[in-house]
Specification:
- This protein is of the alpha+beta class.
- The chain is about 15% helix and about 30% strand.
- The chain contains 6 helices and 14 strands.
- The two termini are about 15 Å apart.
- A 5-stranded mixed beta sheet has the order 6-5-14-9-10. Strands 7, 8, 11, 12 and 13 form a 5-stranded antiparallel beta sheet that branches. A two-stranded antiparallel ribbon has the order 1-2.
């Protein structure tokens, strides 16, 4: 990561995040201090059932499910837009997988329900040369990218449900990427656009020094 020209190491970030959960989440003064340490501000870090909920702005997006639209465009034969009911009418699948954050914590056995990207992209029909999927979040300017091959792995999905109910707002409602084999910054929350691309473009955290291939245990200095 970088703040201006000064590198901020993962150890420094972990030192703040790990400075005692009970003592860390006591008010905006502490959160504000952390925001000054992390590039562009991690404005909210909230403990929740083993999770740490991060946002890069002053608040997390609040997306009305009835008004939600997911656009798929870019290098496709036919750009398409889906509402949440459209997505739920497709072939939803379920899986149980672990979630790992690059800052050092994990949550085991998360129950997800959603769509595989092969089915999701079927109507749009990616064109020859399509090699990347860029996921754009309603949490502007957050985005990230996977290769087409990575997105088609059997445990990767666009999740709509979590642990038996619709995605909660802190976990990316109405739709988020789930990429269990990579650290959580690749699992973009509040996804409202998927851009099919020929070329790589660095995501939000890649622009700040994180690895583009964020394999758990084999990237980002681990």
């Amino acid at each position: 990561m970088r703040m201006g020209e000064r590198a901020i190491g993962r150890a420094a970030f972990l030192g703040v995040v790990g400075a005692g959960v009970a003592g860390l989440f006591v008010g905006r003064d502490v959160v504000g201090a952390l925001g000054r340490l992390v590039p562009d501000g991690v404005a909210s870090i909230v403990p929740s059932s083993g999770w740490r909920i991060y946002t890069i702005g002053s608040s997390m997006p609040d997306v009305d499910p009835a008004a939600y639209r997911l656009r798929i465009d870019g290098l496709v034969e036919r750009p398409v837009t889906y509402g949440l009911d459209d997505l739920r009418g497709m072939g939803l699948v379920e899986q149980v997988s672990d979630f790992h954050c690059v800052t050092g914590w994990s949550v085991s056995d998360v129950h997800w329900r959603g769509l595989r990207f092969g089915e999701l992209l079927d109507e749009a029909k990616p064109l020859p040369g399509a090699a990347w999927l860029r996921f754009v979040s309603a949490e502007v300017p957050y985005d990230d990218i996977l290769t087409m091959e990575q997105a088609m792995l059997p445990d990767v999905m666009l999740a709509l449900d979590m642990d038996g109910g619709p995605l909660p707002r802190p976990h990316g409602s109405p739709a988020r990427v789930v990429m269990p084999q990579m650290y959580g910054y690749k699992s973009v929350k509040w996804v409202d656009r998927i851009e099919v691309r020929r070329d790589f473009t660095p995501g939000f955290w890649e622009q700040r020094g994180y690895d583009s291939d964020a394999w758990v245990g084999d990237s980002n200095g681990y």
